[in-house]
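Below is how a single chain appears once it has passed through the pipeline. First comes the sequence as given, then the structure the pipeline wrote out for it. We keep one example in the README because the format questions we get most often are answered faster by looking than by reading.
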Amino acid sequence: MRYGFAKFGFHRMIANIDTRAKGSALLAEKLGMRREAEFKQAEFFKGDWCDMWLYAILEVEFRA
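Resulting structure:
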């Protein structure tokens, strides 16, 4: 994330995470991201509709 904010000047980064991937959600939280939304049956993956979480962090939050 440091590279994206510094090199490309990103203002915000997001992660779209399948709600069944609890480890990915924990990693996003460990990186300082917050869960902003849950989308029901938002992605069709391997023959199944999946709920998704949206995680995000702003550059100012990352720098703090």
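The domain at 2-63 is CATH 3.40.630.30 (Aminopeptidase).

See the next section for the split statistics.
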